[in-house]
Amino acid sequence: MTTFDSITRPQRTEEAEGWSVPVQPAAAASGFEFDVAIVGLGYVGLPTALAYHGSNSRVLALDVSERRIDVIRSQQADLLEVDQARLSIALDHPGFTLSTNPDDLSRAAAVIVCVPTPVDEHLIPDLSILKGATAMVVDHAVAGQVLMLTSTSYVGCTDDLLVKPLMERGFTIGSDVFVAFSAERIDPGNASFDHDEVPRVVGGATAECEEEATKLLLRYVTNVHRVRSLAAAEMTKLLENTFRAVNIALANEFADICRSLDLNPADVVDAAATKPYGFMPFLAGPGVGGHCIPCDPHYLLWQLRKQRVAAPMITQAMVEIAARPNRVVDRVQEVLSGAGSGMMGTRVLVIGISYKPDVADLRESPALEILDGLIERGATVAFVDDHFDDVTLPSGAHLTAITDPGAFQAELVLLHTRHSSTDLTWIEPHQLVLDTTYRGVDVPQRVIL
Ligand SMILES: NC(=O)c1ccc[n+]([C@@H]2O[C@H](COP(=O)([O-])OP(=O)(O)OC[C@H]3O[C@@H](n4cnc5c(N)ncnc54)[C@H](O)[C@@H]3O)[C@@H](O)[C@H]2O)c1
Question: Which PANTHER family match (predicted)?
Answer without folding.
Answer: UDP-N-ACETYL-D-MANNOSAMINE DEHYDROGENASE
